[in-house]
Amino acid sequence: MAASIAVALLAAFLTPLIVYWLTTRTRKPLPANLPPGSLGLPVIGQSLGLLRAMRSNTGERWLRDWVDRYGPVSKLSLFGAPTVFVTGPAANKLVFGSDALAPKQPRCLPLILGRRNILELVGDDYRRVRGAMMQFLKPDMLRRYVGTIDAEVTRHLDAEWAGRRAVTVLPLMKLLTFDIIATLLFGLERGAVRERLAAAFADMLEGMWSVPLDLPFTAFRKSLRASARARRVLEATLREKRARLERGESSPANDLVSCLASLRVDEGGGGKQLLTDEEIVDNAMVVLVAGHDTSSVLMTFMIRHLAGDPATLSAMVQEHEEIAKNKADGEALTWEDLHSMRLTWRVALETLRMIPPIFGSFRRALEDIELDGYVIPKGWQVFWASSVTHMDPGIFKDPEKFDPSRFEGQAPPYSFVAFGGGQRLCAGIEFARVETLVTMHHLVRRFRWRLCSKENTFVRDPMPSPLHGLPIELEHMGVASPCKTAC
């Protein structure tokens, strides 16, 4: 029995190596001016080394060591495919601005989120979908909803923070961002429908980054089933929003789903839908995942840093007290108030520079591409990681130092890419800015905090997550909740 298991394991290990060797024999010759580096062992390549580094939270250092050895454009092998790792402003410009590179997400993501989501699209399809989403996410629209987000934040702090001696930050930030998305982007009232979406979403997240094995009892199977439940909620929501629009009972400005449902190809509104129903639901799923995770991680790590940086916290408190003293009790924040939160947004940007929520991602070369005198062959993977550029001392002086003042001016083009860049600039950047600034305004005025754990570390799984979710002890500052007056 043991011998047969050993043979089976050996066969499972050798089969991909044999297939790889046979397929590479028939490929066309590679160009002579490939980037420097090493492809390592067939199939395995450098995958195990990078994965080990990520599990021990030294992934950024592993990549910087690789760049020190081979330069900003280098070849390696990751997850069974030949890969070119690129870093630096010129490389970032290529990654975010070239139609010769197509997104290549982990196989589980399109299966869970849908194949027509914006992360998978290229060319005209990408521009069409992004343009449609920007109809609601552009600043001129979002300025109308600062008060709505303000009400969600104050309700959340009253319900989950007020009166408590200690809280765990990351799960609470995820709860807050889900509530903001459900209210503002999906237009869902609190109740059974919203609770079904929340439950399905929580189950879906557990298998988002799992091995895509659709077998009983796997995390991926559970995530697929949860995804189907979440999609049914969103499909029903879309049908309801469209019916209300047709009856004249609601406006495209009510929420993102209504906005997308209202768009037509011609300006008169009588033509065919700009987006298919599948595209609306798929991209609502992306908004749910991206808006939930990235903003909650950003605000969690801002709180984590401010616990040990009293000077920056004091300056932020002063900034927000100046705004508050010019407002009546219970008066919600406005778009104009956000423009006075310059220091707070610089703190957010510096947090993103040092701990970007997205470690990196892959692209696929649709044709031979030249970069820095080297050729990236058609069909190869291209891997980029923002942290290597962000921690380059040639771009950001003393990169290990937390210094929000570095964002008082404009960063060099494509050097700060926490939100992407070029045509791939995150459509939700303004939405993230509004919810971050509103949340931090109320937090720094109502509370002070101290980290419960002396071990101030975090891991990536794949998003950065602080130890134990960042438990903190709270001190209440006696600032009355605006919600007590406004609500």
TrEMBL record:
Gene3D superfamilies: Cytochrome P450 (1.10.630.10). Keywords: Heme, Iron, Metal-binding, Monooxygenase, Oxidoreductase. Coiled coil: none annotated. SUPFAM superfamilies: Cytochrome P450 (SSF48264). The keyword Heme applies. Its cofactor is heme. GO terms for molecular function: heme binding; iron ion binding; monooxygenase activity; oxidoreductase activity, acting on paired donors, with incorporation or reduction of molecular oxygen. The keyword Transcription does not apply. Belongs to the cytochrome P450 family. This is Cytochrome P450 716B1. It comes from Panicum hallii var. hallii.
